[in-house]
Structure to design on (163 residues):
């Protein structure tokens, strides 16, 4: 039996972080958590670029455009969609998350989701560096692990082709 799993040590990988400016207080906290996690896991922050977009709705387009460049090993999407009094929350959340998942599948690059979808500002604050941790940090760690895992899978596939 062979087991594949990514490790949590980075080095010279390139990461893009795309952050929604809407709810910037939360986005900034998620960004700091992501940068801290990348650094703590050995990623050189000179290989990390940050892109700010107006809101969560714009994340998938910019993430896809970045993925098409082929210069990043993974893309980390960050932001917060906080429920309001209208159904806008459901539309933005659903389409944003489907769009980001679609980019990862289509472009074959890890796209991690560090976008909070919360009922209120208090929940968002708790998940962006308070009692509930920092989901930006978690998305960064997931990106490191996915880069490592995909490298193993792709390397194994190349070895199998040669046999």
């Amino acid at each position: 039996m062979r087991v594949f799993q990514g490790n949590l040590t980075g080095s010279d990988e390139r990461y893009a972080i795309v952050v929604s400016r809407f709810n910037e207080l939360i986005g900034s906290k998620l960004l700091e958590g992501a940068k801290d996690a990348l650094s703590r896991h050995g990623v050189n922050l000179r290989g990390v670029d940050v892109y700010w977009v107006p809101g969560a709705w714009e994340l998938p387009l910019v993430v896809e455009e970045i993925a098409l460049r082929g210069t990043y090993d993974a893309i980390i999407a960050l932001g917060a969609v906080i429920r309001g009094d209208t159904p806008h929350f459901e539309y933005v959340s659903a389409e944003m998350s489907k769009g980001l998942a679609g980019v990862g599948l289509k472009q074959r690059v890890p796209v991690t989701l560090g976008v909070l979808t919360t009922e209120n500002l208090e929940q968002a604050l708790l998940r962006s560096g308070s009692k509930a941790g920092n989901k930006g940090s978690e998305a960064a760690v997931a990106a490191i692990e996915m880069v490592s895992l995909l490298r193993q899978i792709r390397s194994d596939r190349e070895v199998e082709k040669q046999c």
Notes: The chain has a mean pLDDT of 94. Residues 85 and 149 are 41 Å apart (CA to CA). Strands lie at 15-20, 48-53, 74-82, 111-118, 128-130, 133-134.
